[in-house]
Amino acid sequence: MRHHMIRPEFVESAPTQLSDGVIYISDRFRTALHKCCCGCGREVVTPLNPAGWSCKRDDGIVTLKPSIGNWSFPCKSHYFIIKNEVVWAKTMSARQISAVKARDARDQQVYINRCNQAKSVTELPAPSSPTDSAPSWLSILEKAIRRWLSA
């Protein structure tokens, strides 16, 4: 069942199970996470950074930019989240999808290069506990981005 509205929940970290029609936003991990709005149940991870998405908030109302194109999913859904409303976008051709993926990959690489340059100037603090065995949100996000880029 397609969703036409989405409810934001501001969280520290992702819940173990996502609810339909809810977008989970973590400032700590700079990530928004939700189930695909087409109803297929796939998990959508949107990194909030200059090469990914931005999230505008206004008193519990969110807008995510740019659009969300789930082209690696069987549903190939494409939509915007504007003021908690899911606005369905037109279907894109395989050629258009390839062009968008290539642009996104370039943008992501530029962002990674900038982060690496900044990291080489100042060292990041060590992880708080080297014995933690549970995967972090960041490692889950990194795996999701790698899967998406390789699709």
Can you offer a commentary on this structure?
The chain is an alpha+beta fold and 151 residues long. It has one domain (1-122, 140-151). The protein is 28% helix and 28% strand. The chain has two helices and eight strands. It has helices at 94-121, 137-150; strands at residues 7-10, 22-26, 31-35, 43-47, 54-58, 61-69, 78-82, 85-88. The strands form two sheets. It has a four-stranded mixed β-sheet with strand order 1-2-3-4. The longest helix has 28 residues, at 94-121. The model has no long low-confidence stretch (mean pLDDT 86).
Strand content: 25-35%
Rg to the nearest angstrom? 16 Å
The first-to-last residue Cα distance is 25 Å
Q: What's the count of strands?
A: 8
Helix content: 25-40%
- Series of secondary-structure elements, N-terminal to C-terminal: EEEEEEEEHH
Which term fits the overall shape?
A: globular
Largest sheet: 4 strands, mixed
Q: Which stretches are low in confidence, meaning pLDDT under 50 for 5 or more residues running?
A: none
Order of strands, main sheet, comes to 1-2-3-4
Structural class: alpha+beta
Q: Specify the number of helices.
A: 2
Number of domains: 1
Give short descriptive properties of this protein.
151 residues; alpha+beta; 4-stranded mixed sheet; 28% strand; globular
